[in-house]
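Record pair follows.
FIRST:
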Amino acid sequence: MSKRPLLFLVMAVILTLQATFSFSSVGTTYADDQPMRLLSLPDLGSFEYPLATYSVHADMMELQNDRVSEILFPGAFTIAPNDAFVYRQLDLGNTVYTVRIAPVLPSTSVKTEELPKLLGALPLIAYDQADLSGVAIQSVTIDGFPAVRADNFMVGAEKVATHIIVKVGATVMEIVVLPTKLTGSPMHNTFMAGNENANRSIYEAIIASLRIHV
C-alpha cells in the first residue's frame, strides 16, 4: 500500500478532530490539559465540558412531577463525571462535582433585585431560605445576564457547592453544582466527600463557558 493515501487518511483524521474539539486547559489533579467539547442546545445556549472526564445527559435527575412543567425546552441537562474519573479521584481522596442546568419559567415575574427569593424555590433543588443563613448571596453576571449565586451550604445532609440563578428576560436559568453521588457498595447513594478544592476549577470552567441564547 502506498504511503501517500495513508498520509492523507491521517491528515483527514486530524482535521476532523480539530473541527470537533476546542482545546482548553482545565486544572485538575487527574489531567492538566483536557479537550473541551462545545455543546450547543436549541433555545438554551451552549457550554463547554471536558470530554475525557465528563458526559452530558438529558433529564438525568430526580424531579417532582409537579415541578417538571416549570422547565422549558429543551429541558434539564446534567453534566456528570465519568465513572473512571470518579473512582480515580475517590482513590486520591478528592471530591468530583455534577452540574445541573435548566431553563425555568418562574411562577411569577421576578425583577433582578428579587432573584435571591428564587433560591430554593425552583425545580432543580428545593430548600428553605433558612438554609442560607450566614451564606453570602453574591450578585454576579453570567454571559452578561444578571444573576445571584450562593456557595457552600447544607440542605439537610446534602452539601450544595454552588447554586446560581440567571435572569434571562421573563425566564431564568438555574444552575446547581453538587458533589457527585456514588453508586455501588459500600457507599451506594452517598455523596462524595474529600478534598473539595481539587476539582472546583472544572465546574467553574463549565459555568464560565455558558453562552445563553435569547
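SECOND:
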Amino acid sequence: MVEHHTVAGGHRTCHVGGTTVHKSKTVTPAGDPDQKKQYAWHRHPALIAAIPAVFALIGSILTIVLGQSGVLPAAINPAPPRTTILSTTTATATTTATSTVTETVTETPVAQITGPGSSSTPQTLSPGTLAITIRMGASGRIGPGEYRAGSLPTASAQVLDETGNYPATGCYPTWVLKRGSVVIKTARGESCGQSFYLSRDSLEVRGVYSLTVSVVTEAGAKGTKTEDFKVS
C-alpha cells in the first residue's frame, strides 16, 4: 500500500492496494477582519442583554392598552377603563311671601223680632219696610229644614213694622210655593195672622222647595221673605 500526500496544494493522493484514491480539501483562507466585524454586530453582548428589556416594554404597553379596552379581567387589569363621573347640582330656591290682609267687617244691626201685639224696643228698620219671619210647622219634619214626601206642614208669617210692632193697619200676605222654578201653589190672606196650608199633593215630589211670602200694609209698608226646605 502506497500513500502520496500533497500539502498546501489542497490535493491528496492515496494508493491503497492497487487502487488509487484522490481526495481534495479546500482550505478557506483567513478572512478580512473588517468583514468579520460587519457580520458580527448582532452578536454584541450589550445588544443581546437589551433584548429581554425590549420584549418586557412591549408586553407592558400591550397590557395597558388591553386593560383600558376592558379586555383583561378586573383582577389582573393594571389599567382599568376610564370612568366618567357625572356631577349633578341641585338648586333649591326658597321663596318667602308675606302678605298682610286687613279686613274691615261692618255689622248691620239685626232687628229684635217679637210676637204680634208686643211693644218692645223699636226696630232699626227703614220707614215703610217690614221685618218678616216664616215659621214652618213640625208635621212631617224629619230633620232641620227637611220634610217627608207627602207631609202637610202649615206655615205662618210673623210681621213687624219699623217700630218693632205688629202693623196697626191692615196687613195682607201673598204666599207662593215653588219646587225649583215650578210654581206648586199660591194663596192670599186677609190678615198676616192667617196660616198658609199646603195641599195633599204639594210635597209629593222629592226635591228642594221654596216658600215665599210678600206682605203689604194699608200704610204702604212692604216686605218679602223666602224660606227654603228639602223634601225627601
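COMMENT: Helices lie at 33-39, 45-68.
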